[in-house]
Design a protein that fits this description.
about 140 residues; 5 helices; 4-stranded parallel β-sheet; Ribosomal Protein L13p, Chain: A; single chain
Length: about 140
């Protein structure tokens, strides 16, 4: 018996569509991260990007529990003194609903060049329409 090691040329990628309407943010993000990493495949290898592409629609209709809409904040810094900016989850969902889900998924991926390659396979859209019909994505129910 020998251990099977997958090669980068043997990786076959699929496309999946996920409808985020009514789904809880963190639970949805963890399932998406699992698919982007490729942990759902028997050929999963932690040092290779074996994951699939994920298209998320209706990102603006994702739900959160508790009082997170007013208590959760997203921070960024301009690099200048006093340049810390913050925005609440409620405002972020109103202005840029796709950034909320992308930030949640990004936090669950590796913090290296492999994780940066994985996040590029995530396509998020606020509404029902997406321009990836040519890839013939499969409907994924989470």
């Amino acid at each position: 018996m020998k251990t099977y090691a997958v090669r980068a040329s043997e990786i076959e990628r699929e496309w999946f569509v996920v409808d985020a309407e009514g789904k809880t943010l963190g639970r949805l993000a963890s399932e998406i991260a699992k698919i982007l990493k490729g942990k759902h495949k028997p050929i999963y290898s932690p040092h290779l990007d074996v994951g699939d592409f994920v298209i998320v629609i209706n990102a603006e209709k994702v739900r959160v529990t508790g009082r997170k809409l007013d208590q959760k904040f997203y921070y960024r810094h301009s690099g200048y003194p006093g340049g810390l900016k913050s925005i609440s989850l409620r405002d972020q969902l109103a202005r840029h609903p796709t950034r909320v889900l992308k930030a949640a998924v990004r936090g669950m991926l590796p913090k290296n060049r492999l994780g940066r390659r994985m996040i590029k396979k995530l396509k998020i859209y606020a509404g029902k329409e997406h321009p990836h019909q040519a890839q013939q994505p499969k409907e994924l129910v989470l």
